[in-house]
Write a structure and sequence with these properties.
The complex is a heterodimer of chains A (228) and B (658).
Chain A (H helix, E strand, L loop, with lengths): L6 E10 L2 E11 L4 E6 L5 H8 L7 E6 L2 E2 L8 H5 L2 E5 L10 H11 L6 H13 L15 H13 L5 E5 L7 H16 L3 E5 L3 H6 L3 E6 L2 E5 L5
Parallel strand pairs in A: 3-8, 3-9, 6-7, 7-8
Antiparallel strand pairs in A: 1-2, 1-4, 4-5, 9-10
Helix pairs in contact in A: 3-4, 4-5, 5-6
Chain B lengths: L1 H8 L3 E5 L14 E6 L5 E6 L5 E8 L12 H19 L4 E6 L2 E7 L3 H13 L6 H10 L1 H5 L2 H14 L11 H6 L2 H11 L5 E7 L8 H8 L21 E6 L5 E9 L8 H14 L3 E5 L5 E9 L1 H20 L4 H18 L3 H10 L1 H8 L3 H6 L3 H11 L6 E6 L1 H9 L7 E4 L5 E2 L11 H11 L3 H5 L3 E10 L4 E9 L3 E8 L2 E9 L2 E6 L2 E4 L2 H7 L17 E10 L2 E10 L2 E9 L5 E10 L2 E15 L2 E11 L2 E12 L12
Parallel strand pairs in B: 3-7, 8-12, 8-13
Antiparallel strand pairs in B: 1-2, 2-3, 4-6, 4-7, 5-6, 9-11, 9-12, 10-11, 13-14, 15-16, 15-27, 16-17, 17-18, 18-19, 19-20, 21-22, 22-23, 23-24, 24-25, 25-26, 26-27
Helix pairs in contact in B: 2-3, 2-8, 3-9, 10-11, 10-12, 10-16, 11-16, 11-17, 13-14
The chains are: A alpha/beta (228), B alpha+beta (658).
């Protein structure tokens, strides 16, 4: 699978309620790439990401993500795609009624890890990876915004996915915390993980260079012009 | 038995436990059913089958008590907020399920191995909704308004539902961006707290046999959910029109999108439900559109949609009408009915193969589920005979009372609408499903009072009418069917008015009003007039009733001009307490009142009354219309005045009663 692109879309299109949100999308993303998705609100960034994690079907064209065919994936097997992905949102989407460790434990339980030392070790390793090794007992509300996002990233890393999808992960964070999260995502790319990130933060594009895809007018085009 | 034991262990009261195993014929699946009830009144059902590869979770509320019209859009706002929360929870945790929030609950389907976890996320979100999401949900909803709501087929449905159920009914509620902007996070949370509670709810899980019952993490979330008092709201009963009504809206593209509805006064558990649902197969097959009968405790309906050219739509609706009429004229052959039953059996059997569809069948057609489960389909449907189909068609199908919504290029949409409805029952709408005025602009500076005064001037002068003390009018009234009655109306202005209708000299009906009250007498038996009836005879107390607006608690507005082929009319609307009472149409050239339109609510629903005023003649210098034609409920009555005596000697004692 390593020789295959992680994401490949040919002539892809997304239509919502008979309105073409995206059309003629051609995209190939390989291992170890940092890809930024930029564009105005409503330009189709989130719609594309939703297609990549199986939340929305492609209306036209073909696509594969981590070897899963987006055209044939259905309700029965879309969870297998999800297990090859890590997903991070702007608003963290943590479960507020359980501790940081239990947030991770919930996912491992749901994805078939039996209770035991391996499960606990995996949780600790992921918390360590994002710098929260000593804060596993804390409830989400007791963590700062940046720490909550780190916890969301730790959760996304639990099943060692090759691809991390981040939908405006720094949208709710102050500049200093944002930098910490970007550094963390950049470090993951250095470890051969692929990160696709929708963002409005053009500072990130300059500080941590990567491929830039611009969504506009229902189309996605690669650009080297980083907006100021 | 394990699931029953487990329910008991966790404090549930086992109401009934049934283990139904279907005999596997023709690929039929075996489904095990277990039913329990939690102490807080929540009913739980587990459908298990080794044929299921995925799992489904359905929560359904008996929404009759819960459906109330409150701030428009709040129910959908709640649904969207729940959805946003579930999206964040399930995607964030890498789990997956598809869900839909319906007007009466929600349904979800997903990976069976992780159903305990994703189901817990949904239920936890239901119990602890995150109001912080509302602001973002609200912005996204408004941003996507055009893309979501201005789709022609959606516009057609929105118009139809608004007209079928009215804005005061939950099903007819029409949300606009302005409504969404007015909704607050606390409105959303209050809605959930007020209407979604356990003692009118049903939780249904369909899963593979690997799951033994309702999972423990779910019951932990649900058992501390307090039961609440259920208040029964006063819901307006939707009423059916007396004729075909059509509504049109303009959209781009070449196609017309048509939605047709007819309300059915038929409850899902009524014995006629089965023949009606069997007949639905026939109606659907009879035309190129899609026809379904939805039996719903709140409002059952026949629903039909078709898209294509205007001639496609016309042909398809005509075919539906012919099938409806044909069903009333003759019973189907035994062979035809047998094939409908077989087709319904095959559909029902296939439904059991999907965990979600099986859940819906269990909830919405429990008798069908039971019949297939018990292998008793033939016995279940045996009672339905060809004559039952015809009887049900006669009792419920009304091809002449359809409501038709057409969206497309305006000329094409109008052509489809006018192929079925009279022009006077045609309404124009915009793409937000809001009614547009069918009238042109009013002349600058002209008011309703100007128009009314011009009418009295044309009839002999306002002063002449002001000087009138009394009047007697005599004539005949011809009803549909050729019956002719004598009519005598006498009035002393400011004192009283009496109308008497006689046949062969015998007074059959009298209506008498004094200022503020009235009496009706049928065959000599008096009864007080309700206010709405008094208001109909009240104009007889005034020589120039259209100028006595303040006395009659009316306001008048000039709302537009109506263009006839041969002239222009001014349209004046009379309102009382903000509700339209009457529309009056005056000829712009002669200034005379030509016709009026009135919406009334009768004992069996709304009635539209159209009155035409013709053949004005002069009596003592005053002009009166001597031919007054009244059309309502497809019944026509013509009043022909033979004599009018202004300032006649009229006996005042006839206006008195004990």
């Amino acid at each position: 699978m390593n020789d295959l692109p992680l994401v490949h879309i040919e002539n892809g299109g997304v239509t919502i309620a008979e309105h073409a949100v995206l059309q003629d999308v051609n995209l190939t993303i390989g291992a170890g790439e940092l890809v930024y998705l930029i564009g105005k609100t409503g330009s189709g960034k989130s719609s594309l990401l939703k297609c990549l994690y199986g939340e929305r079907a492609l209306s036209h064209g073909q696509g594969t993500v981590c070897g899963h065919d987006l055209n044939t994936i259905n309700r029965k097997n879309v969870h297998t795609l999800r297990r090859d992905l890590g997903i991070v949102f702007q608003d963290f989407a943590l479960l507020p009624d359980r501790s940081a460790s239990d947030n991770l434990d919930f996912v491992l339980g749901a994805t078939g890890w039996s209770k035991g030392t391996a499960r606990e070790s995996r949780i600790q390793a992921c918390l360590d990876a994002v710098g929260l090794g000593t804060k596993g007992y804390k409830m989400p509300h007791a963590l700062s915004g940046g720490e909550q996002q780190r916890l969301a990233i730790a959760r996304a890393l639990l099943n060692e996915p090759p691809l991390l999808i981040a939908d405006e992960p720094t949208g709710n964070l102050d500049p200093e915390t944002t930098n910490g999260i970007l550094q963390l995502l950049h470090d993951l790319v250095q470890k051969d993980r692929t990160v696709i990130m929708a963002t409005h933060d053009h500072h990130a594009l300059r500080a941590y260079p990567g491929r830039v895809l611009h969504c506009s007018g229902g189309r996605i085009e690669e650009t080297t012009n980083v907006p100021s | 038995m394990k699931s029953g034991m487990k329910a008991l262990k966790h404090g549930a009261i086992t109401l009934a436990f049934a283990c139904l195993i279907l005999t596997p014929v023709r690929g039929q699946v075996a489904v095990h059913v277990a039913t329990t009830e939690e102490p807080n009144g929540l009913k739980c059902v587990h459908l298990a089958s080794d044929a299921y590869e995925t799992a489904a979770l359905v929560m359904e509320w008996t929404f009759k008590p819960a459906l109330e019209v409150e701030r428009t859009g709040t129910g959908e706002a709640w649904a969207r907020t729940l959805s946003a929360q579930w999206a964040a929870d399930t995607v964030g945790t890498g789990l997956h399920c598809h869900w839909t929030v319906t007007p009466t609950g929600f349904e979800a389907q997903g990976d069976a191995a992780s159903v305990v976890e994703w189901g817990a996320l949904l239920l936890r979100g239901l119990r602890s909704p995150n109001s912080a999401l509302w602001q973002n949900v609200q912005a996204t909803w408004i941003d996507g308004w055009g893309a979501s709501y201005h789709v022609p087929s959606t516009v057609a449905e929105r118009i139809l539902w608004t007209e079928m159920f009215s804005l005061r009914h939950p099903y007819g509620e029409r949300v606009l961006p302005s409504n969404i902007e007015a909704i607050t996070a606390s409105d959303v949370i209050s809605h959930g707290a007020a209407y979604w509670h356990p003692n009118n709810g049903l939780l249904l899980l369909s899963s593979p046999l690997t799951l033994e019952g309702i999972p423990e993490p779910w019951t932990e979330i649900l058992t501390d959910w307090p039961a609440r008092e259920i208040k029964k709201p006063a819901l307006p009963l939707p009423s059916r029109p007396r004729q075909i009504e059509a509504f049109i809206a303009e959209s781009g593209g070449d196609s017309v999108h048509t939605a047709v509805g007819q309300l059915l006064r038929l409850k899902p558990n009524h014995p006629d439900a089965l023949p009606m649902l069997l007949m639905a197969h026939h109606l659907d097959a009879a035309s190129s559109g899609s026809c379904e009968v939805v039996l719903d405790a709140l409002a059952s309906r026949l629903h039909f949609t078709v898209s294509g050219t205007s001639s496609d739509a016309i042909g398809s609706i005509q075919a539906l009408q012919e099938a409806m009429v044909g069903s009333t004229r003759s019973a189907p052959t035994k062979e035809a009915l047998t094939s409908w039953k077989q087709s319904a059996f095959e559909e029902t059997t296939a439904t059991l193969e999907s965990p979600l569809a099986a859940a819906h069948l269990f909830i919405h057609r429990p008798k069908w589920f039971q019949a297939v489960a018990d292998g008793e389909w033939n016995a279940f449907t045996a009672s339905v005979r060809p004559n039952d189909i015809q009887r049900v068609a006669i009792n419920y199908l009304r091809s002449e009372n359809l409501q038709i919504s057409v969206v497309g290029p305006l000329d094409s949409a109008r052509a489809v609408a006018l192929a079925f409805a009279d022009a006077q029952f045609l309404g124009l709408y915009d793409k937000n499903a809001e009614a547009l005025s069918p009238y042109g602009p009013v002349p600058d500076g002209m008011t309703a009072l100007d128009v009314i005064r011009a009418h009295y001037d044309a009839c002999g002068g306002e002063q002449a009418f002001a000087a009138l003390k009394s009047c007697r009018r005599e004539g005949t009234m011809e009803a549909s069917g050729g019956m002719i009655m004598d009519v005598l109306a006498e009035e002393v202005y400011g004192v009283g008015h009496r109308t008497a209708i006689s046949i062969d000299g015998r007074v059959m009906m009298e209506n008498v009003v004094q200022p503020g009250e009235g009496r009706s007498l049928q065959m000599g038996r008096p009864r007080p007039m309700p206010d709405v009836e008094y208001r109909r005879y009240e104009p007889g107390l005034y020589a120039a009733d259209m100028l006595a607006l303040e006395e009659r608690d009316l306001t008048a507005g000039l709302i537009g001009t109506y263009q006839r082929a041969d002239g222009t009319e001014w349209v004046v609307e009379l309102n009382r307490d903000g509700t339209r009472v009457q529309r009056l149409f005056f000829d712009a050239r002669t200034h005379l009142l030509l016709r009026s339109e009135e919406h009334r609510t009768g004992p069996t629903g709304p009635v539209q009354v159209f009155v035409a005023y013709d053949e004005y003649q002069e009596f003592d210098g005053l002009q009166y219309a001597t031919k007054i034609t009244r059309l309502s409920n497809n019944q026509r009555m013509v009043l022909t005045l033979e004599s009018v005596e202004p300032n006649a000697r009229v006996d005042k004692s006839q206006f008195e009663w004990e």
